[in-house]
Amino acid sequence: MLASGGGTKIRIDSFKTTGHIQLMARPSTREQIIAAAVDTLHRKGFNGTSVQDITEAAQVPKGSFYNHFESKELLAVEALERYWQRVLDGLSGLGDEKTPAVDRLRRYFQYLNEVTRQGDYQTGCMIGNMSAEMPDQSRPVRERLAVLLAAWSRAIESCVKEAQADGALRRDMDARTIAAFLLNSWEGAMMRAKVDKDATALTAFEIVAFGTLLT
Description:
Layout: E1 2-5, E2 8-12, E3 21-24, H1 29-44, H2 51-58, H3 65-68, H4 72-91, H5 101-118, H6 126-133, H7 139-165, H8 175-196, H9 200-213
Helix pairs in contact: 1-2, 1-4, 4-7, 5-7, 5-9, 7-8, 8-9
């Protein structure tokens, strides 16, 4: 059961005799705007999204936007950071030492491809989308994208090094080069998949990438 207590919702567990009360704080306006920005910018892109689109999605007054953000550009940087947390969740599987490193790599990209399929090839990767749209328009966004892509590549590189040490991946190329190739190629395949609305490009990426790199 929910009861109202000022600006905070209170959940009362009617199934327990202890009278336990759990406070459920409402998300702040700033958090609502960031969450709405991630979804809206991901779907429509930076130039296709207005401040009003974001505030309507967040269900907050348009005027409240500038109480929390100086510009849509700086909100985009915040939205990228929030999206990056989702990327990090997926990257956690690369550290599973119970699984051979090369299998972790393959499964990671299979996971990314499956997420894309479930989204009907509509939105693609927000980091990739912004990388195609924003570098010449916004220095803060470009610099943040460079940091995120470098961190993403390093996470893949760590797993590549393990696979090379196991003898599962070729060693005539350094791990950094292989990791960059995997990420860059996958982002390109993702963009093609959005155009074709099918998995052909992503499947080709997996076949060629791992067919070429496996020893």
